[in-house]
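Lecture 7 notes: from sequence to structure.

We start with a single chain of 121 residues. Read the sequence below before looking at the structure.
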Amino acid sequence: MDFLKQIFTWWHKQTVGTFIYTLFVGKFVGEDDFGNKYYSNKKGKRWVIYKKNIESSKIPPLWHSWIHNLTRSVPSDNIKKYSWQKDHQENLTGTKNAHKPEGSLSANVKKDMKKYESWKA
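Now the structure, written as tokens:
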């Protein structure tokens, strides 16, 4: 089934053309925490093959800077993280885990909206 999805859809992992190009020209560079695999060629072109559905927000910040040629070095796994840093998440808009601030129409908790008082002269 995955093979047929790969042939007939572009939004599932990679196309047949990308598969063939990666097979002949691509050099495996690394893999991130989500399972996305990163490749490059001799001319400096860089690309990613996503583990499941293609969603560009699944690329962590360090790999994002590498794939856009902002850094030359490949991100390593042993980078020091501070206590205030959170793990990268993909864009959750449209899912049940989306951010719904207090007072928004889709939030479960309604904010107590007080009427304003006009200035008294």
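The radius of gyration is 22 Å. Keep this in mind for problem set 3.
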